[in-house]
Design brief:
This protein is α/β, with parallel strands linked by helices and about 240 residues long. It contains 9 helices and 15 strands. One of its GO terms (molecular function) is DNA binding.
Length: about 240
């Protein structure tokens, strides 16, 4: 049976949205100004045709993967520079001596701004972060081992968990695939979420570095954060209770 033109256009629009990542059914319905029951029917038929992959409460495009770090470095560049500049102010506190700097494109921009801060000790799971900071006049750098992600170039897994359980930092700067004021940080895998949760537990304070496009995204796993964490985006700082 032929698909009506209106239905086809809506499904093409759904596929376009899903190519940016996972979306929930309510969010798709709102974006396309249609009912959730219509979206459910579309997703069922599109999944049967192999166009999409159903997730809990939503869907993602078949074959969607997170863009590699090199590509993400070029996305939202102005926003990431603004976030890194604001984050830098938190390192002016004389009490901050040991810092965790997460893997990710925004964290790289912050690392570039502290290459001469020899008084700091920086713990990181990001390969680019360690390479950026590893020079004679720079901070002391501690690299967390583990399995290396081919996309983020960050470490996760049992070895990473073992090391993180034995450290404490004054301040942790975390990246995220998604940010939710109630749920915390969203990540594409349980391993990534668990790593972020462990770091947050071992930090005196937690600051999330993520541009505003990360709000409201649907992802596979969430890492809860302790009360009082701060989210810095390109618009400013937001402290979460």
């Amino acid at each position: 049976m032929a698909i009506r033109s209106g239905t086809q256009r809506r499904r093409e629009a759904i596929l376009g949205l899903l190519k940016t990542g996972s979306w929930s059914i309510p969010r798709l319905a709102g974006a396309l100004e249609t009912s959730e029951s219509t979206i459910r029917r579309d997703l069922r038929d599109m999944a049967a045709d192999g166009e999409i992959i159903r997730t809990i409460g939503g869907a993602a495009a078949a074959g969607y993967v997170e863009p590699p770090l090199g590509e993400r470095m070029e996305q939202q560049a102005e926003a990431k520079d603004a976030i890194a500049a604001r984050a830098l102010a938190h390192l002016d506190d004389a009490r901050v001596r040991t810092v965790f700097l997460d893997a990710g494109s925004t964290a790289v921009r912050l690392a570039e701004r502290i290459r001469d801060r020899s008084e700091l000790t920086v713990v990181t799971r990001g390969l680019e972060i360690a390479l950026t900071l590893a020079h004679p006049a720079g901070p002391t750098v501690i690299m967390i081992g583990g399995e290396v992600s081919t996309l983020s170039h960050g470490t996760t897994g049992a070895l990473s968990d073992h090391a993180l359980a034995r450290i404490h930092v004054d301040l942790a700067f975390l990246g995220a695939d998604a940010v939710d004021t109630a749920q915390g940080l969203g990540e594409p895998s349980l391993d990534e979420a668990r790593t972020k949760e462990l770091i947050a537990e071992r930090a005196g304070a937690v600051i999330v570095l993520a541009d505003s496009s990360k709000a409201g995204r649907e992802v596979a796993a969430w890492a809860p954060l302790p009360p009082g964490w701060t989210w810095i985006d390109e618009r400013g700082e937001h402290t979460q209770g």
